[in-house]
Amino acid sequence: MTNQIAENLEAIHAEIQHCARLAGRAANNIELLAVSKTKPVSDIVLAYEAGHRSFGENYVQEGVDKIAELKHLSDISWHFIGPLQSNKSRLVAENFDWMHSLDRLKIASRLNEQRPAFAEPLNICVQINIDEEESKAGVLPSELMPLLEQLAPLSKLKVRGLMAIPKSSKVKSEQLASFQKMHDLFATCQQKYPQFDTLSIGMSADLCAAIENGSTMVRIGTAIFGARD
Ligand SMILES: *Cc1c(COP(=O)(O)O)cnc(C)c1O
What is the tens place of the pLDDT at every residue in 180-223? Predict the structure, then answer.
C-alpha cells in the first residue's frame, strides 16, 4: 500500500525546490515544518517513517499527549505554533523544542523560568501581527525591538527569529506586501541580532510567495495530512 503522506511530503519538497529556484535561493535553507494539529499519532508516524522529523502543534494538551506517546522517536523536533495562555506555559517549556507564537514578556518570563535546567534553551520565534489586524495575535512591528531587548537576558530562551500569519487574502499583491513587510522587519532585526536565522512564514496556500520573501521555515498542514475536520 502506498503511503499518501510520504507522497505528499515528496511533492512539497519538490515545490519548495521549485519556488527556491524561482527566487534564486538554496532550497536547503528552507525547512519544512509538518503541522500535525488535529491529526492522529499514526499520521505522524507515517511522516516519520518517510524521513520527516519536525512537527508543529497548535493545542497544548493535544501536543503534549502526542509527544508522550512518541517519546521513543527521540529525534523528533516539536514546535508549538498556537496561541498560549500563561497558565499552560509550563507544558510548553517542559515538552517542546520550539515556540513560534511568543508575543509578550509575561509568557517569555514564565517559559524561561519553567524550562528545565537540563534542557537546551527553548527556541523562540516572536509572532508579528504584520497586517495590524484588530483581533490577531502577535506584536505590532513597532513593539518588536523593545520586546527583543527584554528577551535578551532570558538565558533559557534562544530567540531565533520571527513568525507571522498574514491576513488571508485572495489578492496576491496584498499577500506579497505582507510577506515583504516581514522580510524587511527580519532584515532589520538581523542587523542588531546577527544570530537570527529563522523566518517562519508560508503555509499550504502561499508557499512560493513566502519563499520569495526569505522564509526559512514553511509550516504546512493540509498539503501533507489532508483537510482537517
Ligand atoms: C494550521 C496552521 C498551519 C498550517 O496550515 P495549512 O493551511 O493546513 O497548511 C500553519 N501555521 C499555523 C500557525 C497554523 O495554525
Answer: 999 999 999 999 999 999 999 999 889 999 999 999 999 999 99
Domain CATH number, residue 176: 3.20.20.10
3-class DSSP state of 222: helix
CA distances from 114 to 64, 93, 160, 223 (A): 15, 6, 19, 34
Binding site membership of 221 for ligand 1 (Cβ less than 6 Å): yes
What is the CA(22)–ligand 1 centre distance, in A? Answer: 24
Sequence-distant (≥ 6) Cβ neighbours of residue 166 within 8 angstroms:
130, 131, 175, 178, 179, 182, 201, 206
Closest CA to 89 of 71, 55, 115, 65: 115
* pTM for the structure as a whole: 0.96
- 115 CB less than 6 Å from ligand 1? no
Domain extent, residue 69, equals: 4-225
The answer, yes or no, to whether any atom of ligand 1 lies below 6 A from the CB of 12, is: no
Total domains present in the chain: 1
For residues 123 and 54, is the Cβ–Cβ distance under 8 A?
A: no
